[in-house]
Amino acid sequence: MFRALADRTRLRIMHMLGGGELCVCDIVDVLKVPQPTASRHLAYLRRAGLVVCRKQGLWCYYRWTSPKTAFHEKLLESLACCCQDVPQLSRDSRRLPTCKPDCCR
Q1: Which range of residues forms the domain containing residue 50?
Q2: What is d(CA 6, CA 28) in angstroms, rounded to the nearest whole number?
Q3: 52-70 burial string, b = 16+ CB within 10 Å, else e?
């Protein structure tokens, strides 16, 4: 799990998903990265057991997994708590509301 969170882009994604489920297009819009790059990072997080994917038609929606252990639960709590003061993550959070709602539904 720590390796998955050691990458800045994946940490940004996890922080955004802390607010709830997002479509890949929302993540791409906030991060300003190509869709394949975002999908590669999301796949890494999925393999690490940190996020789950829900497909709806052509679109993939990601969210945090439900904690399976006390360690996993504390890790997610720490992520939500400690990242609030990181400037880049705060900017990402402010950009999320500007994403077009239902852009891919």
Answers
A1: 2-92
A2: 20
A3: eeeeeeeebbbebbeeeee
Indicate the number of domains in the chain.
1
Looking at the DSSP bridge assignments, the partners of residue 61 are 23, 54
Residue 105 falls within a domain, yes or no? no
Residue 103 within a domain: no
Q: What are residue 51's DSSP bridge partners?
A: 64
Write out pLDDT tens, residues 29-50.
999 999 999 999 999 999 999 9
CATH code of the domain containing 31:
1.10.10.10
Nearest to 63 by CA among 7, 27, 10, 18: 18
Tell me whether residue 60 is in a domain.
Answer: yes
Closest CA to 61 of 89, 9, 103: 103
- Residue 21 to residues 3, 43, 70, 87, 92, Cα–Cα distance (Å): 22, 15, 22, 22, 15
The Cα–Cα gap between 5 and 14 comes to 8
pTM for the model: 0.84
